[in-house]
Amino acid sequence: MATVTERSAEPEGGAEQADVPERFGYRVKRLLLGPPLVTARLRDETLSKPVALGVLAPDCISSSAYGTEQMLTQLVPVVGLAGFALVVPVTGVILVLLLLLTLCYRDVVMTYTRAGGSYVVARENFGPHVAQVAAVALLIDYVVTVAVQAAAGTDAVASMLQLLFHTDLGADKLWLTLGVVCLLCYGNLRGIREAGRAFAVPTYLFVLAAGLTVLVGLVRLATGTLPRLGEADLHAAGAVPVGAPGGGVLMGASLFVLLRAFANGGSSLTGLEAISNGVGAFREPRGANARRTLVIMSVTLGTLVLGISVLAWRTHAIPFASGSPTVLAQEAHLVFGRSGFGQAMFAAVQIATALILYTGANTSFNGFPFLASFVAEDAFLPRRLTMRGHRLAFSNGILLLTAVSLVLLLVTHGNVTRLVSLYAIGVFTGFVMAAAGLARHHWRRREAHRVLKTAIGALAAVASAAVVVVFAVTKFTEGAWAVVLVFPLGVWALIRTNERYRAEHEALDAAPATASTATRTRNVVLVLVDRLDLAVTTALRYAHTLRPAQLRAVHVALDTAHADQLRKAWAAGPAADVPLDLVDCPDRRLHRAIADLAARVSADGRTEVTLLIPRRSYGPVVGRLLHARSGDSIAHAVSRLPHVAATIVPFDVSAAIRAHRSAPGGRPPAT
Hints:
By secondary structure, this protein is mainly alpha-helical. It folds into two domains: 43-500, Amino acid/polyamine transporter I; 518-662, HUPs (Rossmann fold, 3-Layer(aba) Sandwich), CATH 3.40.50.620. Helices cover 64% and strands 6% of the residues. A five-stranded parallel sheet has the order 3-2-1-4-5, sandwiched between helices. The longest helix has 38 residues, at 128-165. The protein starts with 23 loop residues before the first helix and ends in a 9-residue tail after the last helix.
């Protein structure tokens, strides 16, 4: 029986380690991100409940800053001032849905304590292929979340500058948004713990600032001192057009308009899934800690959304087409007044709002990489998304999310209203999958309160499915068509990826059963030569250690004059004991000529061919600009041939340059 011995990478008994210089790219990464974290520290990279609320809840809680405004953008242009009164009952319906989904997700985080949310629930109850619907829904939602939250944060900054300093950011709003997304990417590449410490504070600042705004506003409303915008303010330049006075419900507020307002307001519930997707980041007991954090988050969200809607009803804060000043900014301005203290409070509210909206995008930077890693583990996304990076974060997922979000912001010019049109379909489809899967889970088990738990899940699934239909219909022409189109394409792409992985796996597993390890007795080694240098000499030295039956050097003659020079240099050089074969290649099909040669040598039925390919490694930039790298493509071409193996022999040219310059008589460094 063969014995397998494991060896540590650490030197034994004081043995010296190889003096291998760090690559330039790694040195830059270490400088920017800090020292690498070892895998053993992964268990320490978990979150307490207060930090988890700050890291995972900003997306959900911060949506209160624009949820009411998005409802008003649909109501006010059609029904006029009656839209301010209608926003409160529409908010009430959204809060009922929030309650239902909170009850559902309390059960999800207790039943499925591994991160993954609706994807894991759907996979466990409906199978991996159906679960890809949830995967695509959540991946889309995470991307749009980054764009919406970052753009809304910039609107908050622009609102503060506009109302306090009468300064308009204009086109700079987009560049500020893009810069913030890149900054969030950098923070998360440093690791989840540092990201949590940095991003938890804005959540509490916003809850304090917005909560104080609502509280003071309600007190002033009760005492009759809460101001209201006048007619001139409602028709200010840039404000959304106000419908005909006295329009009321009978003269314009059709069911369709109410549904559009409800669909826009449904954006307030996005982010509710974040805790179930990130439950794996909680400290033990994970389920109980996640459940408590979820309840706190939902209560906070519901209180703020209701309070901001009531203030909008009484103050007539009007939404603007450009996104600034925001409805919340106008409310804070009216609530705190124009005194010095009032202006300072207004600025504090806006700063806190901008910070939580910016860090709300961080929810996606935590959730997207985790979800992508789960989907990749199931072989529906590229495997590299399962790899942790320098600081134990899923770096590939973070970079992918950043790139797609930046493209989306550029396409939509960072306009929140346009982005919201892409928003709720993805997240509510995830709600449908989670709730339906949970209902199926409880229905199939004999447990206490089975009927009640099943009913909650089923009701949440039906309600969420209704929201998806409403959103797809009412927002189709405003951008929802793109999500409707991407959805089936995304599911198809994930399933095709899985089929490819399965085909590769089956083919590789079948090889040991069909292949023999000792079919031929003779080994011929061919060393490819393009010129005589240290790289070729190194490959020849290695070739001798293989003790082949025959060793030959091969040069494919693309240039006759160069071939003649090589033949003369070879005969007079240190490798003259190895025969050099010149292979004509008049059509310059290098790969075909080498493959044909290897096939001919192995055609006798008893010869295995080993093809050694010297590969010169240059600097990462210089190598790509100044040198062609054909070794990998040659190896790929001959790998399809039976009884032919290709081995690449690397040679570090940069190290050779340093050694040559430091040697006595070597050329001094250029100055």
